[in-house]
Design goal:
The chain is of the alpha+beta class. It is 50% helix and 10% strand. It has a domain at 87-338 and 409-462: Cytochrome p450, CATH 1.10.630. It has a four-stranded mixed beta sheet with strand order 1-2-7-4. Helix 11 (258-288) packs across helix 13 (319-331).
């Protein structure tokens, strides 16, 4: 199948930039430091002031780093954890070793299928509230869909975790403080990446910590009454927080302490709403530029999407909606670069990697790799179901598709996000049609997640109004 839409992405440099040029370009976006060979190499290396960095693209090496030796030899890099710890504390996003293992085991039950089924009704209500807001946009008007996708993703997280909608004053303050925090976080991480932690502007550090403190205070105010009620056996909610309050370590009989619980909820909100907002925004950009796919999505949603009940089984027939979301995750993986720290000196592809070196697995590169994918830059949601796809293409789906990571540290909310993505795209596809705004081509930038530098502006039409 040829002639599919190829979305714009930053043109890579012809050759690798110098370390200092890389430093100044990466302050704007991780993607600016890439060059043409990045999209075809199996392994690369960069030596920066204070850091040796190895980029791993070959599937066998990726499996070694992310699966086989993930926990003992390639723990999560401390740089990102250090930058986010004022907000996330010692959550599963920042911890390693036995602390991480205990936390992950305690959190797993909250994201199993039975729990996702219980919270589906809240997810549906947030999606319908989103549709009601978009229905107020004048027909054919240009609208930044990143704003709305961020809103609905945050609303879904708040409703499913805390039983709070984004319409509430505390929820709105959390949302606004998170926006300030996310804007500052990449600027503070970059100097550390180059061994220049002292170069971080003190006023930005102060603003970031103030935003983190505000978020945690707001979360504490929402969680404390529930934590105390659970201690008395009186919490009757059926959300994800209720599950986290009830879970116990089988070895010790202990659950999450209060501060530890706040850490986990802060992590779930940041990771959960930001990554989904990114993927949904890019999905709408791809659909707006693919009228045939968008028409098929509309037909599918009209025929199969049932929003009357609260059973996620209503999504089972939304195959195209799921595949559009999966393809958006391939072309624009929200977390484009996964950093690990090598703890055991070893050799990969004849390169000697010292203990303490940084190893990066880049979904952004692997999922567009010229040797791993047919038509890597094309938007083709049918590639996931095409029966005549070649064995090599099917192998790429198995070995070179990792928007949620891979191995023991695979994203705990992957199933949640896929359910959310299919639902939101189904609701949007049934009620609205999207077109690109003239002259508004979104520019991907890699920061905390891969977003559009100036938003994603689309023309929005309601179905049934002559559009």
């Amino acid at each position: 199948m040829n002639g599919n839409f190829c979305p714009h992405y930053p043109a890579p440099a012809k050759k690798r930039p110098s370390a200092w040029r890389m430093f100044f370009s990466k302050r704007r976006s991780w993607l600016d430091a890439l060059y043409e060979r990045s999209y075809a190499m199996k392994m690369g290396e960069v030596h920066l002031p204070g850091m040796d960095l190895y980029m791993v693209n070959e599937p066998a090496l990726v499996r070694h780093v992310m699966v086989d030796a993930a926990l003992e030899q390639f723990p999560k890099h401390p740089m990102l954890g250090d930058a986010l710890r004022p907000l996330l504390g010692d959550s599963i996003f920042t911890t390693n070793g036995d602390v991480w293992r205990r936390q992950r085991e305690l959190m797993n039950p909250s994201f199993e299928a039975a729990r996702l089924k219980l919270v589906y009704g809240r997810m549906r209500d947030a999606a319908l509230a989103m549709a009601a807001r978009l229905a107020l946009v004048p027909d054919g008007a240009v609208h930044d869909v990143e704003v709305e996708m961020t809103h609905v993703a945050a609303d879904i997280i708040l409703r499913t975790i805390l039983s709070e909608s984004l319409d509430g004053p505390s929820a709105r303050r959390i949302f606004d403080a998170f926006a300030r925090y996310q804007e500052l976080a990449p600027r503070l991480m970059m100097p550390s990446f180059f061994g220049l932690r002292w170069l971080r502007p003190w006023w930005q550090v102060r603003r970031s910590r103030r935003a983190a403190g505000e978020i945690r205070a707001l979360l504490e105010a929402l969680i404390r009454p529930r934590f105390d009620a659970a201690g008395r056996g009186e919490d009757e909610h059926d959300d994800i927080l209720a599950s986290l309050l009830r879970v116990r370590d089988p070895a010790t009989g202990q659950g999450f302490g209060f501060e530890e619980l706040v850490d986990q909820v802060a992590m779930l909100f940041l990771a959960g709403h930001e990554t989904s907002a990114s993927a949904l925004s890019w999905a709408l950009h791809l659909l707006a530029n693919s009228p045939d796919v968008q028409r098929r999505l509309h037909d599918e949603a009209c025929e199969h999407l049932d929003l009357e009940g609260a059973d996620p089984g209503a999504l089972k027939d939304l195959a195209l909606a799921r595949n559009v979301f999966r393809e958006a995750l391939r072309l624009f993986p929200p977390v484009g670069f996964l950093a690990r720290q090598c703890t055991h000196a070893q050799t990969m592809r004849e390169k000697s990697i010292r203990s303490g070196a940084s190893v990066v697995v880049a979904p952004w590169l692997i999922q567009r790799h010229r040797d791993l994918w047919a038509r890597p830059d094309e938007f083709d949601p049918d590639r996931y179901d095409r029966e005549d796809e070649t064995p090599a293409a099917r192998e790429s789906l198995r070995r070179a598709y990792l928007p949620f990571g891979m191995g023991p540290r695979v994203c705990i909310g992957a199933a949640f996000a896929l359910q959310e993505g299919a639902l939101v795209l189904g609701v949007l596809g049934r009620q609205f049609r999207f077109e690109p705004a003239p002259g508004a081509v979104p520019e991907p930038v890699g920061r905390l997640t891969i977003r559009a530098e100036h938003g994603i502006r689309l023309r929005i039409f309601q179905r049934g109004k002559g559009a």
